[in-house]
């Protein structure tokens, strides 16, 4: 996924089906300059991590 699409998903009121390393995640924030996103697993909102947007997969 590219940073622009990740930002669109993060800004959307609708929940998109996105995964990281095979796990369903929620995109909290996208840093388009660095190409990273702050994400967390759907069932673990306190388990935040910063990952490359290119490693995110939209289902």
Identify the overall geometry: globular
The class by helix and strand makeup works out as alpha+beta
Number of DSSP E strands: 5
Give me the number of helical elements: 1
What is the end-to-end distance?
11 Å
| Element-by-element helix/strand order | HEEEEE
What average pLDDT do the residues reach?
96
Percentage of residues in DSSP E strands: 35-45%
Poorly predicted residue ranges: none
Tell me the radius of gyration. Answer: 10 Å
For the largest beta sheet, what order do the strands appear in spatially? 4-3-2-1-5
Please describe what this structure looks like:
This protein is of the alpha+beta class and 59 residues long. It is built from one helix and five strands. It has one helix at residues 3-11, and strands at residues 18-20, 23-31, 36-41, 49-52, 56-58. The chain has a five-stranded antiparallel β-sheet. Strand 1 and strand 2 (23-31) form a beta hairpin. The protein is globular, with a radius of gyration of 10 Å.
Secondary-structure blueprint of this entry?
Elements: H1 3-11, E1 18-20, E2 23-31, E3 36-41, E4 49-52, E5 56-58
Antiparallel strand pairs: 1-2, 1-5, 2-3, 3-4
